[in-house]
Amino acid sequence: MRRALALAAALLLASCTGTSQQKMPQPFGTRPATSVLKDALLIAEVKSALTAADPDSAATVGVAARDGVVVLRGRVRDAATKSKLAGAARGSSGVVRVVDELRIDPRAPQLRQQVGDVALAARVETAITAQLGPQNVSVHVDRGVATLTGAVADRKTKATIVTAARGTSGIRNVVDRIRVGQP
Q: Second label for 168, Cα 20 to 30 Å away, from 47, 49, 93, 108?
């Protein structure tokens, strides 16, 4: 953003000198700062409209824009949501065209599910730390399934970590990918 503003200021100053009527050629691949700024503002407006239409889209839908053309990418749970999001994007001011690359996936995560999974992962990490102190183990939770990765010094430590994860309320299953050896 700072770079875009600096470029805009430089262009403004250059245009005020009045020494040359010829426009300097732009280097390949660069765009005027005003275009970049307009696209960034359009992306923010479209993301806001999508989130208002479907809060889960904040976590599952990506938005890109260039010169008023908006591209939607990601996963949605059903055709009705896909249609609603495309309509919300089209309704945003400054949108010239919407390219809908959304895929329908009934298993697409919902925002509250993702938040719940993050909270579960934090609870598992807390249980592990409470029993053993900090460990070189990562915890990832997806739909209540905890995947443990990393390395520990011995089998006893590994068993304690797996037991702590399994004993955490809300965990349905544990995938053990912990290596025994040098952490």
A: 108
